[in-house]
Design brief:
Number of strands: 0
Structural class: mainly alpha
Radius of gyration: 18 Å
Mean pLDDT: 83
Helix content: over 70%
Strand content: under 5%
Number of helices: 5
Low-confidence stretches: 1-8
Shape: globular
Length: about 170
């Protein structure tokens, strides 16, 4: 039986930790970069548009990396505990699957698939936002209001970009 550490948590190697979440998030972002490179090479050879490669890198890799690391930085600054790993992984899954659906929808499957992917990404961002802001609400947390405000603004800008992209995929004119 695993022994309990000073925080009362067991040293069970099968237990998901913040380190696992960060590693999986970084791995997912890396897979998106590889997919973006493959898409870029394919489109250059075929003489097509580099839209898919660019969006695999931005909607996929960058968004997943933000989703993985922003809550971690907030927890570290606040000096509190991170959200449960399963919740964090759910948010990363929504961001990754949503980004893939957006690219697949725009390139071949249609606007509804792209819009559904954007909705998945927006839900994932709401979860990331909660995991980013909630550590500073802990009564014993260190407060960093300027950093928290910057994180909120960054997430709102990202959400705005996703929403505008979804509307564009559905044919709503700019």
């Amino acid at each position: 039986m695993p022994s309990a550490g000073p925080t009362g948590r067991t040293d069970n190697p099968r237990h998901l930790t913040e380190r696992h979440v960060l590693a999986l998030g970084l791995g997912m972002a890396g897979l998106y970069v590889v997919a973006a490179l493959l898409a870029a090479i394919t489109t250059v050879v075929a003489g097509g548009s580099s839209w898919a490669a660019l969006h695999l890198a931005l909607a996929g890799a960058a968004t997943v990396a933000i989703g993985a690391f922003m809550p971690h930085f907030a927890v570290t600054l606040a000096g509190t505990r991170p959200a449960p790993p399963r919740e964090r992984l759910t948010a990363l899954g929504l961001l990754a699957a949503g980004g893939a659906a957006v690219v697949a929808g725009v390139t071949s499957l249609g606007g509804l698939v792209a819009a559904a992917g954007a909705v998945a990404q927006l839900v994932g961002l709401v979860i990331v936002g909660w995991h980013t802001i909630s550590p500073s609400r802990d009564p014993l947390a260190r407060r960093h209001q300027v950093v928290a405000l910057a994180y909120i603004v960054a997430l709102l800008e990202l959400a705005g970009g996703i929403a505008l992209g979804a509307l564009s995929a559905l044919g709503v004119p700019a």
